[in-house]
From TrEMBL:
Gene Ontology molecular functions: transmembrane transporter activity
Naturally occurring in which organism (per UniProt): Arthrobacter bambusae
PANTHER family reported for this sequence: 2-NITROIMIDAZOLE TRANSPORTER, PTHR23523
Signal peptide: none
Name this polypeptide is given: CP family cyanate transporter-like MFS transporter
Length: 428
């Protein structure tokens, strides 16, 4: 038994997050076939595996930030190393994104996802290792880089596999997949410090996250290796996004939201701890803020698609995010739950509407896939400069006040480009 052969070609979102799933293999000839499973139970098992893969794609970022002060102090990390460790994985999301469709054409999406989960598990195991005579830094750098590369491949291929294999359950599977992504970041933020407290060392807290990745790897292994990939060729289709002003406006909008999004994962917990909040409470606050992102991500796409253009919603959620981030740094700590709640709702909505622009600004699935690739390659590459600048500003000033000003600027720029991208125009 196999899922239906293809999803509907209409890419315009009507409601919910499921419609923003983009098939990175849309240009393949012959067309990529659904994953081969023999029973309905096998199809359910496949769905569980795909959701569990999504549940492992953000713990890398939020778990490290939850114990960043402990790692820095115990491992004796220099300032530049902290900046690199918070920046490199996001940069690699952009660097490795273009390779995912190429690898899928050669080996099949399922086997590439399996290989990515193997690399992710290895990276999580390597990350806390103390190399005799060299300390923790080489393993931290190597493991973090491996994780970033693996997540990049999953980011690109997983949405298309979900859309291809579950066309008649797209609302359910799309919702579960996007919820799993947000839950991944929330779990990393909320549980890492308690594991550190229980185990007594940050290495155990980071090693803990290799366990769920290894479980998913073992579950997905027999299903993925049974697939028989067919060599595919790339076919031209869709508009040239690189020459489109609309595509660049959408991509810059995406890059600016990524600057804020990954800075939340990397730096919000250290910011809260710098303000005197204990590690456990800081992790809980970040976790709740990320959970609120789920609410924003569910509501915003359907709301955005109801209007002829998205200028107002893009501007509002961008200003909410930048303002919430700045207030988390400057606002009274008595209201810190309010500031981080505002940040969470704004960021979840901002990320979702930025992704929704892929569908609303393109006329066909091929152009949507090309715009998605452009947004991931350029967007994550530029987006990593957010974590880089926060780290450098903190290193230079010894505090996070300059970062608060930075995110007021970034939020304002996101509002400007969101306004431009929100106009009712199409790529090509």
């Amino acid at each position: 038994m196999t899922p239906a052969s293809s999803a509907p070609k209409n890419t315009k979102p009507h409601s919910g997050v499921a419609e923003i799933l983009v098939d990175a293999e849309i240009d393949e000839l012959p067309a990529a076939e659904p994953t081969q499973v023999k029973t309905r139970g096998g199809l359910v098992f496949l769905g569980i595996c795909l959701v569990l893969i999504g549940l492992n794609l953000r713990t890398v970022f939020s778990s490290f930030s939850a114990v960043l002060p402990e790692v820095t102090a115990d491992a004796g990390l220099p300032g530049w190393a902290v900046v690199v460790l918070t920046t490199v994985p996001v940069t690699l999301l952009g660097v490795f994104a273009p390779l995912a469709p190429i690898l899928a054409r050669r080996f099949g999406a399922e086997r590439v996802l399996l290989g990515a989960m193997a690399v992710l598990t290895a990276g999580l195991l390597i990350r806390p290792v103390d190399l005799a005579g060299a300390g923790h830094l080489p393993a931290l750098l190597t493991g973090t880089a491996a994780c970033g590369a693996a997540i990049a491949l999953c980011n690109v291929l997983l949405p298309g596999v979900v859309k291809r294999d579950f066309p008649h359950r797209l609302g359910l599977m799309g919702g579960l997949y996007t919820t799993a992504i947000c839950a991944s970041a929330a779990l990393g933020a909320g549980f890492t410090y308690p594991v550190f407290t229980a185990a007594g060392h940050w290495t155990s807290a980071l090693w803990f996250w290799a366990l769920p990745a290894a479980v998913v790897l073992l579950l997905f292994l027999p299903l993925a290796i049974r697939q028989h990939p067919v060599r595919h060729n790339a076919a031209d289709g869709g508009a040239n996004v690189w020459r489109s002003a609309v595509a660049w406006q959408v991509t810059i909008f995406m890059a600016l939201q990524a600057m804020m999004s990954f800075s939340v994962f990397a730096w919000l917990a250290p910011i809260l701890r710098d303000r005197g909040i204990d590690g456990g409470t800081a992790g809980l606050i970040v976790s709740v803020s990320i959970v609120l992102q789920m609410l924003g991500s569910f509501v915003a796409p359907g709301l955005a698609a109801r209007f002829k253009d998205q200028r107002v919603i893009n501007t509002v959620v961008a200003l909410m995010t930048g303002g919430g981030f700045a207030l988390s740094i400057f606002g009274p700590t008595d209201l810190i739950w309010v500031w981080t709640g505002l940040l969470g709702l704004g960021q979840g909505s901002l990320t979702a509407v930025a992704l929704t622009m892929i569908m609303l600004r393109t006329r066909d699935s091929h152009t949507a896939a090309h715009l998605s690739g452009m947004m991931q390659g350029v967007g994550y590459g530029l987006g990593s400069t957010g974590t880089l600048m926060v780290g450098q500003l903190h290193q230079a000033t010894g505090g996070f006040a300059a970062a608060g000003i930075l995110f007021l600027v970034v939020g304002s720029l996101a509002a400007f480009f969101g306004f431009r991208a929100g106009r009712n125009r199409y790529v090509g």
